[in-house]
Write a structure and sequence with these properties.
Layout: E1 3-7, H1 12-23, E2 27-32, H2 39-50, E3 55-58, H3 64-71, E4 76-79, H4 86-91, H5 93-114, E5 119-125, H6 150-169, E6 172-178, E7 181-182, H7 194-203, E8 208-211, E9 217-219, E10 221-222, H8 223-235, H9 237-240, E11 244-247, E12 254-256, H10 257-268, E13 274-277, E14 286-287, H11 292-298, H12 306-327
Parallel strand pairs: 1-2, 1-4, 2-3, 4-5, 5-6, 6-11, 7-10, 8-13, 9-14
Antiparallel strand pairs: 9-12
Helix pairs in contact: 1-2, 1-8, 3-5, 5-6, 7-10, 7-12, 10-12
Amino acid sequence: MARLLITGGAGFLGINAAAHFHRAGWTVTLFDNLSRPGSEHNLAWARKELGPTLGFLRADVRDAAALTAAVRGQDAIIHLAAQVAVTTSLVEPIADFEVNAGGTLNLLEAVRAAAPTAVVLHASTNKVYGELKDLRRPVDERQPLDFHSPYGCSKGAAEQYVRDYARIFGLRTVVLRQSCIYGQHQYGTEDQGWVAHFVHSMRANRSITIFGDGHQVRDLLDVRDLCNLYAATIDQIDRCSGDILNIGGGPANSRSVLDVLDAIAELTGVAPRISFAATRPGDQRYYVSDIRRAAQQLKWRPAIGVGQGLRDLIDWASQVIASRAAAA
């Protein structure tokens, strides 16, 4: 039976990936320090739904020895552990670097020493492209990098290490520059995970702050489509080892921030209470992924449209609210 380690495994992406691969017959181990809000809820859900075969290690990617022990014997690693917010990186740039760049280097060295044939998927970000001023077209992998913010720098440095360890040391790595993933088990904050943040805030009648004018455009990708991409990448690693791929919903799933708010309002019947604040440093006015390389190499495309994805996210959030009310 194939074995999978997911760093950051109790986070939103990790818990969805764990469920996906567990159902496909993999033996899954989660590696997480449980620092992210909502991670303990996700872990409790996973233990209940996935059963006792699910492994869990409470540890930090800054602990090189713990990583080396965790990767030994694994067939694949999905590296999701990260400091995920631009705003946090502005306040704590050293910690941001230690987790994102240092933690990734720790993982690569652990794989090189203890699991050199394992497949490594590294979750990067569209923020490595920088602010992209005046750009109004889908972004492909030829777009020059322009790190903007400590977060952009740390994630950019990390992905370049991941790519180079394939070239220099022969590791089977792939960098996935992910854009605006949303879906079930996402709790979200105004700093990261904004789609779920909107849903939870509107259901709780909390005010929402829009940074900028709300006409910023992003391509949205349902997490279930991302999990299918993870599986396709591992299955076809010989087609993409050492590569970098832009991964998002693509032009068909691009929406403005205000468009998403309107869609949630229509689906929930709740009018949002919003205020506006200044644009945050490094925020991209327009970012839509050109996903043609992933489509060509891996025969993958998003299958879940924004409308269906938002309905499913709202249904899940409603179930969370109902279960908490019943437990109170």
